[in-house]
Amino acid sequence: MVAKDVARSTEDFHALLQREQVTVLNQTPSAFRQLIPVACAAARQGQGLALRHVVFGGEALDVSSLEPWFEVFGDQQPRLINMYGITETTVHVTYRPITQADLAKGASSPIGEVIPDLSWYLLDAALNPVAPGSHGELVIGQAGLARGYHGRPGLTAE
């Protein structure tokens, strides 16, 4: 856990990452955007981070915002991973490593592939599978999916 005053200060948060040798960081993309200039400036002065993985979640990821990070750190160490999820799965449904190649593609919050204990289907309004590249509703299934909302039968019925 990070103290509120440290979490709200990008410089203090970066110092904590260095001091504690944090190897896995889970942040919203907007919080990470605030960290990028501080981490990049420190890295240019030889003050690197121990990070092996940065995991994004909680909001859409603007891949282009990672360009300054990739210029300094590359895309192998740490690995940047975008996660997508919904409440009914208790957080994450998909994962997608993000690379510099995604910048050139103009990728917009790529959600990647389904986590192994889930399945997903992209369906139209009649619940038929849609063609690759089409728009539809994402439907989740298998063991990682909740059976309903605890104590809220009306919401479960929806």
Question: Could you describe the 3D structure shown?
Answer:
- The chain is α/β, with parallel strands linked by helices and 158 residues long.
- It has a domain at 4-113: Rossmann fold (3-Layer(aba) Sandwich).
- 30% of the residues lie in helices and 20% in strands.
- The chain has six helices and seven strands, in the order ααβαβαββαβββα.
- It has a five-stranded mixed beta sheet with strand order 1-2-3-4-5. Strands 6-7 form a two-stranded antiparallel ribbon.
- Helix 4 links the parallel strand 2 and strand 3.
- Helix 2 crosses helix 3 (29-44).
- The mean pLDDT is 90.
In short:
The chain has 158 residues and is α/β, with parallel strands linked by helices. The protein has helices at 4-7, 10-19, 29-44, 67-73, 100-105, 153-157; strands spanning 24-27, 53-56, 79-84, 94-98, 113-114, 119-123, 137-141. Helix content is 30%, strand content 20%.
